[in-house]
Design brief:
two-stranded antiparallel ribbon; mainly alpha; 223 residues; SMI1/KNR4 family protein; 4% strand; 11 helices
Amino acid sequence: MPHPFSHDSHADVIEAVLATDARTLAGAFESRRRPAGRRGRTAREAPAGARDEATHELDLAGVLVISAAEAAASLDRFVDDPGIEPEGALVFACLLHVTGHTGAADFWWQFAAGGGSRTAAYCLCLSHRRKGRFHDAAFWRAQAAHAPEEPPPASRVDSRRRLLSETARHELLLQWHRGLTPHLPAALESVINRLTVDSDDADFGEIPQPAPGLVERLSRDGR
């Protein structure tokens, strides 16, 4: 399978990403990590370009996760039982990220990382890096380097059932490749924005909660 980060033309990038799965995503993120021996800059020393790069990469991570073949199944399991589905929390966080709920995305990435998701830990690394919090970014980068997370068994994944339509996935990747901030179509943003907010957290702000029927609404309104 082509590597989703290895192409220059947006057509090749989209083709590769739309065919990807969680194992390829994990490998892609791993290949993008800088060598552990390289000294990082402090927030004061870091150039603005480093933060922009982290923002651009985090946007791509979010798009890749919600475009993955098992995103719908993972999110469904998370809605049913958040306590045992860190991969669903990762998907939910990425949905919040591309909808502009950045604080809530950090909350759910942290939840997923606590459950063992390396990809969520790497998203937190990028999130802190784009804010210039390089000490926190280094912590989450170290967490992301721990033992590989186990992908869901193949029998639990229906690759024909996608969280987003092919059109929506194409558009997200096109936006990213053009240097824009990826965002969901208005109908899908509305689905996310109507979710119940459990609390207004001092650290993360308002935190939307997953709700029954979320996957079905996203699938239906995105067609």
